[in-house]
Specification:
By secondary structure, the chain is an alpha/beta fold. The chain has a single domain, classed as Vaccinia Virus protein VP39 (Rossmann fold, 3-Layer(aba) Sandwich), CATH 3.40.50.150. The protein is about 35% helix and about 20% strand. The protein is built from nine helices and seven strands. Helix 4 packs parallel to helix 5. It is globular and about 45 Å long.
């Protein structure tokens, strides 16, 4: 992403090597996808050969949603990305209790590695729950969604693959919605106004989302499909 440039270019260049070494020291679990820089780009379909479909959750937090999805859908292969090691460890505890074989976690800063992390057409679905809105104006450059990120999602999604996003932050939600509406390779999977307020049956909700809804906050959901 062009947010990381100038004096940090060298940091980006060596990031894959540093994060792979650090993760090897931090985690000893079959659910952590350990990789070396030479392994990039990663191919989830080869890593999960027995699964009919693949789903990527970006920013899985404490792992409540991923835990529920993994246990309910053994036919789907799941990959989760999270940058905080504490959250990875909490999610690992959930996965070890389940004793499943259809999920791998990646601990990394996606902003520093998205360009060549996954091969083309790696996923059938991408899930992003409650991306950080960075509400202060001086922090807007830290927001995850941009036209460049949408281009990357087009690259890693198969044709007809979808992106599902939930957010309780009104301004950021509609900013993301406009980005998708303006992108030539995405079309809404929902009827106008291209989002819903109610969670569809069977959709897992994170602890954060449950608390927000219980407090009366509106949570909106969108779905866009690669065309």
């Amino acid at each position: 992403m062009n947010k990381i440039s100038g004096v940090t270019a060298k940091y980006r260049e060596n990031y894959a090597d540093r994060i792979s070494q650090h993760n090897g020291e931090l985690f000893d679990s079959p659910y952590v996808w350990q990789f070396a820089p030479d392994d990039l780009p990663l191919d989830p379909r080869k890593k999960l050969p027995g699964c009919k479909r693949t789903l990527l959750e970006i920013g899985f937090g404490h792992g409540e949603v991923l835990e529920e999805l993994v246990s309910q859908h053994p036919e789907i292969g799941f990959v989760g990305i999270e940058r905080r090691s504490m959250r990875v460890n909490k999610t690992l505890k959930r996965l070890h209790r389940l004793s499943v074989n259809n999920v791998f976690l990646l601990r990394l800063n996606l902003e520093l590695l998205n360009r060549n992390l996954f091969s083309a057409d790696s996923f059938d679905e991408i899930l992003v729950n409650h991306p950080d809105p960075w509400p202060r104006e001086r922090h807007e450059h830290r927001r995850f969604f941009s036209n460049e990120i949408l281009d990357w999602m087009v690259f890693i999604l198969k044709l007809g693959g979808s992106v599902d996003i939930a957010s309780d932050h009104t301004e950021y939600f509609f900013t993301i919605l406009r980005l998708f509406e303006g992108h030539p390779r995405f079309e809404s999977g929902l009827l106008p106004p291209f989002y819903v307020d109610e969670s569809p049956p069977g959709r897992p909700a994170s602890r954060f989302e449950r608390k927000k809804r219980a407090a009366g906050s509106k949570v909106r959901l969108m779905r866009f499909v690669k065309k």
